[in-house]
TrEMBL record:
Molecular function per GO: ATP binding; ATP hydrolysis activity
ABC transporter domain ranges (all copies): 12-246, 245-473
Record keywords, A-Z: ATP-binding, Nucleotide-binding, Repeat, Sugar transport, Transport
Xref: Gene3D superfamilies: P-loop containing nucleotide triphosphate hydrolases
Record carries keyword DNA-binding: no
InterPro entries with a match to the protein in the record: AAA+_ATPase, ABC_carbohydrate_import_ATPase, ABC_transporter-like_ATP-bd, ABC_transporter-like_CS, P-loop_NTPase
Pfam family, one: ABC_tran
SMART domains xrefs: AAA
Protein name (database record): Monosaccharide ABC transporter ATP-binding protein, CUT2 family
Organism, as annotated: Paracoccus tibetensis
Length: 475
């Protein structure tokens, strides 16, 4: 049971906190306290109110009602209480180096030699959280992979700066990390909390929640619907509390007959009509690059007899959404040739198709004409799926597409992918999540830019994937 804001031992305490956006109650009377040593697992479907809650805690949004206090420090603001946020939508300045990005967050870092000090501090923070990271503090952020950018942002969030962080909010922190790097972060979170820090850990990967959380809070429609020690939840009980029943683990896929081979690349990546091909292995070992070369046609040696391709981006801010467009325009851009006559788009057809996919994939918005940035990150990702699946492209290329998507929607998307594949559509699917890879008909594991193993059927297991990720196998 949470304590009221009068709890003097809490880093932050909320009493009946609410946030309203017109008639929408994004946060609806939450009482919560977080103490030193807590790791609070915060779960709920996309649009449940998780992001609004943490934005009220970190001071980005003022509450419409209720109270928020920082009694332990006596501070009146989150920044003074050393509350830090690391969001799924990465916020590093792409034209600056990693060290220069630390300087933006560390206002006390000055003097003629501040760059030297910034390099030293960011290296120490990276070594502390991600030993063996190989990230250059002088590297410009836009030259880093999305996994490296996420690692850099996490390290900057935990860096001491003027004072040590008391509470760190991690919003889907492993969404771009492979299993080995994600485990490094989870290990550090446990050490940080054991030393007296506190963490709010938001993730749709329920295994991670159970791995690090001392307490789990479940949100639905802006309210807290369950809160108790992590040991008192089961995985199915947690999913039930969220309001969507999902099966335990990945379903074993029945063998299917495929059509002719329609994709082949120099790396040896192939795909047949109707096949779901997964790309796996440690992040940064060539999977995303292989898909980019295939999709963009950067070389002349690959062939695709299947015709057009459509792309679902994992890094939606850089490669996916059109931020100045509406939800409707973002969803319908792939179908414009189909609904236009003499270069004029039929708005009735556009609206009908977009509304159909909104219903099928569960995009949470009252009006498709709203800006795409009005949606949560997970709902933005749903729009990218709707865009791809609504098209008539026979080949779908997906680059770690489930970032920030809740467990219930994941199950729905898996079912949609299998249904589309049964109709003859081909999927090439890179993922850092083993659960997703196990949805595929065939998995190719990359290591050092090469395919180290090809797995099918019962061989598609986490153990076999990890084995192939770390050691080249015979063909």
């Amino acid at each position: 049971m949470t304590q009221p804001a009068s709890d003097a031992t809490a880093i932050v305490a909320l009493t009946d906190a609410a946030k309203h956006f017109g008639p929408v109650r994004a946060l609806d009377g939450v009482t919560l306290s977080i103490r030193p040593g807590d790791c609070l697992g915060l779960v709920g479907h996309n649009g449940a109110g998780k992001s609004t809650l943490v934005n009220v805690i970190n001071g980005t949004l003022p509450p419409s009602a209720g109270r928020i206090d920082f009694p332990l420090s006596g501070a009146t603001a989150a920044a003074a209480a050393c509350v830090r946020s690391i969001f799924q939508e990465l916020s590093l300045c792409p034209n600056l180096t990693v060290a220069e990005n630390l300087r933006i967050a560390h206002r006390g870092l000055g003097g003629l030699n501040w760059r030297r000090a910034a390099r030293q501090q960011v290296r120490e923070a990276l070594d502390m959280v991600f030993p063996g990271h190989r990230i250059d503090a002088d590297a410009t952020v836009d030259t880093l992979s999305i996994a490296e950018r996420q690692m850099a942002e996490i390290a900057i969030g935990f860096a001491p700066r003027d004072a040590a962080a008391s509470l760190v909010i991690l919003d889907e922190p492993t969404s771009s990390l492979d299993a080995a790097i994600a485990q490094q972060l989870l290990d550090y979170v446990r050490r940080f909390c054991a030393a007296g820090g506190a963490v709010i850990f938001i993730s749709h990967m329920l295994g991670e929640i159970f791995d690090v959380a001392s307490r789990i809070l479940v949100m639905k429609d802006g309210k807290v619907v369950a809160e108790r020690p992590a040991t008192e939840f089961t995985r199915q009980g947690l999913v039930d509390a969220m309001g969507h029943v999902a099966p335990e683990g990945a379903a074993v896929q029945a063998a299917r007959a495929f059509g002719p081979q329609i994709v082949a690349t120099p790396e040896g990546l192939t795909a047949c009509r109707g096949e779901i091909v997964g790309l796996s292995g440690l992040a940064g070992h060539g999977q995303a690059e292989a898909l980019a070369r295939l999709y963009l046609g950067a070389t002349s040696s690959w062939r695709s007899a299947g015709g057009r391709m459509v792309f679902v981006a994992g890094d939606r801010g850089r490669d996916g959404i059109f931020p100045l467009w509406s939800i409707l325009r973002n969803a319908s851009v792939s179908i414009l040739p189909r609904i236009a006559r003499r270069a004029i788009v039929d708005p009735a057809k556009e609206g009908h198709i977009a509304a159909d996919w909104q219903r099928r994939i569960g995009i949470r918005t009252a009006d498709l004409s709203n800006p795409i940035l009005s949606l949560s990150g997970g709902n933005q990702q749903k729009v990218l799926f709707a865009r791809a699946l609504a098209s008539d492209a026979p080949v779908v290329v997906m680059d770690d597409p489930m970032r920030g998507v809740d467990v219930g929607t994941k199950q729905d998307v898996y079912a949609m992918i299998r249904s589309e594949a049964a109709k003859g559509r081909t999927f090439l699917w890179y993922s850092t999540e083993t659960e997703e890879v196990c949805q595929c008909d065939r998995v190719v594991v990359f290591r050092n830019g090469r395919i180290s193993a090809e797995l099918t059927g019962a061989d598609i297991t986490e153990e076999r994937i990890l084995q192939a990720s770390f050691q080249m196998e015979e063909a």
